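Hey, can you fold this?
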Amino acid sequence: MEIVYVYTKKRSEFGRQCNFSDRPAELHVDILPDPTQAVNFIERNPCDTPTQCIQEMSEHEVNTERFESETRGINHMEGGWPKDVNPQEMEQTIRYRKKVEKDENYVNIIMQLGSHMEHCIKQNNAIDIYQEYFGEEAVLEETEEQPSAKTINVFRDPNEVKRTATSLSWHPDGSRKLAVAYSSLEFQRATKDMSFDSYIWDIENPNKPEMTLKPVSPLVCLEYNPKDSHILVGGCYNGQIAYWDIRKGSQPVEMSTIEHSHRDPVYKVIWLQSKTGTDTFSASTDGQVLWWDIRKLSEPTERLVLDPSKKGNLDNSLGAISLEFETTMPTKFMVGTEQGQVVSCNRKAKTPAEKIVCTYSGHHGPIYALQRNPFFPKNFLTVGDWTARIWSEDIKESSIMWTKYHMANLTDGCWSPVRPSVFFTVKMDGTLDVWDFLFKQNDPTLSLKVCDEALYSLQVQDNGRFLACGSQLGTATLLEISPGLCTLQRNEKALATAMFERETKREKILESRHREMRLKERSRSEQGKEEENKDVDAEESAEDLVARAEKEFFEMVQAEHKKKEKAEENTKVYTEKDVCEEKDTTVKAD
């Protein structure tokens, strides 16, 4: 058998290589026209022939109908306790626990559960599934990027007559919900067909509010209870206080009586730190701060009149428009007024006069925002007129830091809950400013145009990542800020502490210098007054001397006149005697 080997190879892989080059055109064939062929054709004049080099395609659009989803929840009222046991009573729960512990099956169930629990604990100790291995590198990378913010969602007022989003409040558990209060703050601009409703929004569903709150008057402020996320308290435009339990529906559970409520709109309501979690206090432009217990809203538990003269006169009181309460300082609170002053108060003082401790004045108009720094409670932020100011409790005469004067009014502001050197402000021109005074003091770190209308409210989520802004036309915009602005930087607390202390010390030195200058001016003015008094005394003594000299002169003149008159009278008498004697002598001679 003959063995044959066959080798195959492509033609392109062997042979001479093709070399291409440029050369002039060459005529190979020239076919002349045949006139006889024209008989078979009809001439068409003019002749337009379009040609298309690409495939012809048609345009078509399809728009599907929007599907509106609705989220509903179920309230499960049945608990783990039997019906005859009240969970609020300590004795009944202890008695029931002892009864269960005596059961024979109790020990077996605990033993079975204990083995599973021990297995899970050992697994968790062996591998930490939540550990971040490259946290430091991630932080370094995040800090290098430029500060930015992007819009996540927009929640619009569903009513035809748009109202201002006056207050925002985040849900305390998870911050997946946002409560927005709507009202018209322009005097006598509320129309008859304007809605009184306020809403609770799910931040992932901007199409429809999750729940509607129906007050008897538009809500100016609204706050979640930090201890019980089902309860909200709101301040109405007519001065009443109302609270809701979302498990019981849209209507308020209870409202304060009109005769014991505020006389003006309630601009701020804050929950107090208490055991029951039912205590709150409110402030209004009628010059009062009222304390309430939502279990009994028939009348306030306490009342304070913001009279700077400390006489409790409501006619001379300062209108309150913002409030500040720090849980670490349960006896202190601060009030921002319409007159541009911050009133520091002590709730536990014995007399109403002692409750007003001191005032800080530094704004030309109402103070729309007032908040202590969450890391340094001695320093607080105020927002009013055209600037934002940072104060220290130790200096009452002036603020330690302030922003430049803007062209548009500032309407709200707040601190970042995660970074001690960052705060936010909103303005009437629809701009959001993010300030980081460790990075820049004269200009904001980030300035973002949120909308075309004025912004009136601002609230930051607890983790500092999300930010909500409320506008004049009832639009609540949800923003997500860049990680660099919501991540604590290295040595930031120490740097912020050093800056606060340095600025406080500087203001103290300047204030002492101003005090010395004022004392010198006062002493100079007093010396000038004394010299004027001396000059006046000298002038008075000279006038007395002149008057006395004039008096003596006139007395001497009168005395001379009298002497002359007496001399003239004596001469007349003597002449008459001489005439008589001459007559006698003549008679005798005769």
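Oh, and this one too while you're at it.
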Amino acid sequence: MDDLTITFGEGWRLATWSAPDAHGVQLLVGDGIPSGWTALLPEGPWGLGGWIAVEHQGDGQPDRHPADSFGRPQRSPTPDLALDVLHRAAVPAALADEVPVPDLALGRATGWTPPTDRGLGDPRRDYALGDGLVHLTWPGNPGIQALEQRGHQAGWTEVYDDEGNWAALIAGRLVADAADNEPLLADNPAEALTLLRLALAQNVGTQ
């Protein structure tokens, strides 16, 4: 197995097969547990060909693939990008398994307007996260991003202070530690997005 420590972090490995009928299949393994696999999907009734990412759901469970807005398998132009889709989908689960995640709650209201109501223009939509989530970014405004879930805005993240910390927000309120109601801040946009996904997984704001 190839070691992906430099690109993906500690514990990630990649298995590949050289057989002619392997169709470029690559298996992504995190800490010895398969996270999913990639393969080259030829052009067909589903549209243009490309590399697909298939998430492993556990023994006895059917695997699933991230889909585009039409329900078709999402395709990437290169196998590396398809592997990145798998890695990003696995990050919240890995964090929940390896790092004690506090009970999350909604902290104080900020009065901040959701990014979709700020006149930022049409966002770029990425369907790679799965679970009905759509990642929204605005190329001209790198300090903010959002998630939609099943057609509704689920929350957003943005730069919180002059030190470059990021906050996650749901319904205009900061995601906080339920123990003390203090907001949880992230060092970068990727960690803030993970925090927001963890809050959504705990159904924060819907109880």
